[in-house]
């Protein structure tokens, strides 16, 4: 059934298109800039740029998620829908990054990817943590879109464990094993997320029963006990 009551408001339609549009523009820049600048190794630049795009959208989504409550997690509010969209776009950027890395850096050889990880970290089998990261993020995105009510009702330890693991992988991939722009981007991202986490944990200092509240109570016919 269609009608005025079922149409998506124009403001919401614009909001729905804002982040995907920005994501698409930034993704295009990830591939266009190395070519335009005449990069000596464009494949490496594509891989690094898509990794940076992933970190940007991961950070934007995580920052939003730190402020979600109740109906937000069911994607029943604009804030919740925006966080879910950012989370999915971060995942999509990551998938592009993985495909780009396997195509340009590893030439679709898993053995080569293992040796690359071994050269970078000293432990080639660490690549399986990256595979687990891929699986976990994929399942989480699909769960939030397919079953938002069940997603919102999951035990708190599930979300904390998932995000703790993902933060560990992103931190090691950007701050520990990277350098230059990628490392500083990772430092900035985790500094921001740490600050937001502390703000969320800090107890409210709003005075109880303030003068404004007393006036409001009196005007409504209530008095302080």
Outline the structure in words.
- The chain has 225 residues and is mainly alpha-helical.
- The chain has one domain (41-199).
- Helix content is 76%, strand content 0%.
- It has nine helices and no strands.
- It has helices at residues 10-37, 42-65, 78-105, 110-121, 127-146, 148-153, 156-176, 180-201, 211-219.
- Helix 1 runs antiparallel to helix 2, helix 1 (10-37) packs parallel to helix 3 (78-105) and helix 5 (127-146) packs across helix 7.
- The longest helix has 28 residues, at 10-37.
- The model is unreliable at 206-216 (pLDDT under 50).
How are the secondary structure elements laid out?
Layout: H1 10-37, H2 42-65, H3 78-105, H4 110-121, H5 127-146, H6 148-153, H7 156-176, H8 180-201, H9 211-219
What's the SSE pattern?
Answer: HHHHHHHHH
Give the amount of beta strand, in percent.
Answer: under 5%
Low-pLDDT segments: 206-216
Count of individual domains = 1
């Amino acid at each position: 059934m269609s009608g005025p009551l079922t149409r998506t408001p124009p403001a919401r339609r614009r909001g729905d298109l804002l982040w995907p549009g920005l994501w698409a523009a930034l993704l295009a820049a990830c591939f266009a800039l190395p070519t335009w600048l005449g990069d000596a190794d464009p494949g490496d630049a594509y891989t690094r740029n898509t990794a940076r795009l992933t970190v940007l959208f991961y950070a934007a989504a995580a920052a939003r998620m730190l402020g979600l409550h109740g109906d937000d997690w069911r994607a029943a509010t604009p804030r919740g829908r925006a966080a879910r969209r950012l989370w999915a776009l971060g995942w999509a950027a990551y998938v592009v990054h993985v495909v780009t890395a396997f195509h340009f850096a590893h030439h679709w050889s898993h053995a080569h990817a293992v040796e690359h990880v071994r050269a970078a970290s000293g432990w080639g089998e660490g690549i399986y943590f990256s595979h687990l990261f891929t699986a976990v993020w994929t399942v989480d995105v699909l769960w939030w879109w397919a079953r938002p009510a069940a997603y919102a009702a999951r035990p708190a330890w599930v979300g904390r464990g998932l995000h703790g693991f993902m933060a560990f992988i992103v931190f090691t991939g950007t701050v520990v094993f990277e350098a230059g722009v990628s490392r500083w981007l990772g430092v900035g991202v985790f500094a921001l997320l740490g600050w937001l986490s502390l703000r969320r944990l800090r107890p409210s200092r709003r005075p109880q029963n303030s003068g404004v509240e007393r006036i409001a109570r009196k005007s409504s016919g209530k008095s302080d006990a």
